[in-house]
Amino acid sequence: MFLFQGPIIATLFGSAEPEVISNAHTYLCITLLTYPLITIDLVANRLLRGAGDTKTPMKISIFMNSVATMLNVPGNSLSIAATALVGKYMGRGEAKEAQNSLSYITALSTIFKL
Predict the structure, then answer these.
(1) Contact by Cβ (8 Å): 28, 6
(2) How far is the C-alpha of 60 from the C-alpha of 47, rounded, in Å?
């Protein structure tokens, strides 16, 4: 995948600005580092499940998801708020207000994740 990142990015973002292409390369390089770890996790979980041990993979998944959730609390809180606001406005047929609310929530989410 690392060898083909140039053609993949060119196919997906061919006419994008050079800064976007550069950021896409950086993002892809960082995420490609996690692929072997994800593969090891998936294979280990499937091996344990195939051997009849379903509790250990479940405990590992619960632990890892708990850690990921705790590290992303501001983002999760804002996602819940966004869902509630959009539902509130769309239920009354006020699409413009829903769009404005999402803009503010997206801005807040970006600030918290930085």
Answers:
(1) no
(2) 14
Tokens of 106: 């997206």
For residue 43, give the amino acid letter: V
Cα 72 to the center of its chain, rounded Å: 10
Query: DSSP assignment of 74-104, as one string?
Result: HHHHHHHHHHHHHHHHHHTT-HHHHHHHHHH
pTM value > 0.70: no
Question: Would you give the DSSP letter of residue 14?
Answer: T
User: Six-digit token pair at 32?
Assistant: 């490609």
Q: What is the pLDDT along the chain (114 residues), one digit of tens a residue?
A: 678 888 888 888 888 888 888 888 888 888 888 888 888 888 988 898 889 988 888 888 888 877 776 766 555 555 666 666 666 655 666 666 666 666 666 666 666 654
* Alpha carbon distance 114, 4 (integer Å): 29
Amino acid at 38: I
